[in-house]
């Protein structure tokens, strides 16, 4: 099926995620009246992930506050929800998905939105005493572990938390745990935190936030092994570093990135390469679109073309909408997906925001504030080949958003430099 989606046909949305939900909503808004099946491997209705490392972990939000669509909303959308069920295979040519209970779903259109899973340190798979944070269940387990190590009945007890990885999820967990009164150490294998995402000088400034707030940041600290807890899941563990040093901690959290959930698609007939490879309109095959963290699409920007996979909430939300619109229109006439990427991260009472998609070797210029300012607030812009690629701000939202139209049209770097001067 390369033409428009039959409005009374069947669509299977594989992934009860933000992207999957936005796709389902857009299908209904676009006039799709047929059968709409949503498959999710978690038992939960679709929920929001950003609060997990902040409000949920801190205990300021109950888990149910993260809900994006409750059962009543799913019913209103006419969604046949199969939660707690995992897709095990896809026949792309036949457009048929098989689930872990042996049932299968044949569809006129399929939205693949199964997201990503946390990377784990070698030797830690299945260990209850080494945590990751991706799901609601992960957040609740981690919150419980911190509470056990630092019970409310013993206010003087100190829970020592070791966070492996100083990327955004690791930084947010570190900030939240520090706010809970934990002793926190962050172990980062790179010499500069977030260098691959933000560049060296801005990454170093973000790393300095930890130090300002009493968190120990150790860079160039590669983990070799983690001794198991003396009592099942509880008690201090020893983290051995490659260079021979060791760190003790009550709770160990690993935040070293994610890998796209494409294992169930290996024999599907789709192209799999660090995600599901899609064209510019998010089609992975006729009648099949992908959205969210696992989608690697052909991005056409300012006369250039590249395959990209972006793991941001806003991009996933927009991609779910765009994928559904592509499916409704049909492959021949669907519009290319061309977002202005945006993400944010809340740490230590500050909000880090970025517009655009920079490369690690882009030119960086601070245009407002100073990297070493006491209030830690600044605006920096990124450029490559004379063109503005991105803008980043720490608790400067108004100044940042002034750069949005410039990022969208790929303005010159010199124009961006002059923006705040006016």
Structure description:
By secondary structure, this protein is α/β, with parallel strands linked by helices. It has 3 domains: 179 residues, FAD/NAD(P)-binding domain (3-Layer(bba) Sandwich); 127 residues, 3-Layer(bba) Sandwich (FAD/NAD(P)-binding domain); 71 residues, Enolase-like, domain 1. 24% of the residues lie in helices and 30% in strands. It contains 11 helices and 27 strands. The strands form 7 sheets. A 6-stranded mixed sheet has the order 3-2-1-7-20-19. The protein has a 5-stranded parallel sheet with strand order 9-16-10-11-12, covered by helices on one side. Strand 10, helix 5 and strand 11 form a beta-alpha-beta unit. The longest helix is centred in the C-terminal third of the chain and has 17 residues. The radius of gyration is 22 Å and the shape is globular. It starts with 9 loop residues before the first strand and ends with a helix. The model has no long low-confidence stretch (mean pLDDT 94).
State the helical fraction: 10-25%
In the predicted model, the low-confidence regions spanning at least 5 consecutive residues are none
Average pLDDT, to the nearest integer? Answer: 94
The CATH level-2 architecture of the largest domain is identified as 3-Layer(bba) Sandwich
> What is the CATH C-level name of the largest domain?
Alpha Beta
Report a brief summary of the structure.
With 422 residues, the protein is an alpha/beta fold. It has helices at 18-29, 55-58, 71-76, 136-149, 168-179, 195-198, 200-212, 313-329, 397-401, 404-409, 413-419; strands at 10-14, 35-40, 79-83, 87-91, 96-99, 104-106, 109-112, 116-118, 130-131, 160-164, 183-188, 216-219, 223-226, 237-241, 246-249, 251-254, 258-260, 276-278, 283-285, 288-290, 295-301, 304-308, 342-347, 350-356, 363-369, 378-384, 387-394.
């Amino acid at each position: 099926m390369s033409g428009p989606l039959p409005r009374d046909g069947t669509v299977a949305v594989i992934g009860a995620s933000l992207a999957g939900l936005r796709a389902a909503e857009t299908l209904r808004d676009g006039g799709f009246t047929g059968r709409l099946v949503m498959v999710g491997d978690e038992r939960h209705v679709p929920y929001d992930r950003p609060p997990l490392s902040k409000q949920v972990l801190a205990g300021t939000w109950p888990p149910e506050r993260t809900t994006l669509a409750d059962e009543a909303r799913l019913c209103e959308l006419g969604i046949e929800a199969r939660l707690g069920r995992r897709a095990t295979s896809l026949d792309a040519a036949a457009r048929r998905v098989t689930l872990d209970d042996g049932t299968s779903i044949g569809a006129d259109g399929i939205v693949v939105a199964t997201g990503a899973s946390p990377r784990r340190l070698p030797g830690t798979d299945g260990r209850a005493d080494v945590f990751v944070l991706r799901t609601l269940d992960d957040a609740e387990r981690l919150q419980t572990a911190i509470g056990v190590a630092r019970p409310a009945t013993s206010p003087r007890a100190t829970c020592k938390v070791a966070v492996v990885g100083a990327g955004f999820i690791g930084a947010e967990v570190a900030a939240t745990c520090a706010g809970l009164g934990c002793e926190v150490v962050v172990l980062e294998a790179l010499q500069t935190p977030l260098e691959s995402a933000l560049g060296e000088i801005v990454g170093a400034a973000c790393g300095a936030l930890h130090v300002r707030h009493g968190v120990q940041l150790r860079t160039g600290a590669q983990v070799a092994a983690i001794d198991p807890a003396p009592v099942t899941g509880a008690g201090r563990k020893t983290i051995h570093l490659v260079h021979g040093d060791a760190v003790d901690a009550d709770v160990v959290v690993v935040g070293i990135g994610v890998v796209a959930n494409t294992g169930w698609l290996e024999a599907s007939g789709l192209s799999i390469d660090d995600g599901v490879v899609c064209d510019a309109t998010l089609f992975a095959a006729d009648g099949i679109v992908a959205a969210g963290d696992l989608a690697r699409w052909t991005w056409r920007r300012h006369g250039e073309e590249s395959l990209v996979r972006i793991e941001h909430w806003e991009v996933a939300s927009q991609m779910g909408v765009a994928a559904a619109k592509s499916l409704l229109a049909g492959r021949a006439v669907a519009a290319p997906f061309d977002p202005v990427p945006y993400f944010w991260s809340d740490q230590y009472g500050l909000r880090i925001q970025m517009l655009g998609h920079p490369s690690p070797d882009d030119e960086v210029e601070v245009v407002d504030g100073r990297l070493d300012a006491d209030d830690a607030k600044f605006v920096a812009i990124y450029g490559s080949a004379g063109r503005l690629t991105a803008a980043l701000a720490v608790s400067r939202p108004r100044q940042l958003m002034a750069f949005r139209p410039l990022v969208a049209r790929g303005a010159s770097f010199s124009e961006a430099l002059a923006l705040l001067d006016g």
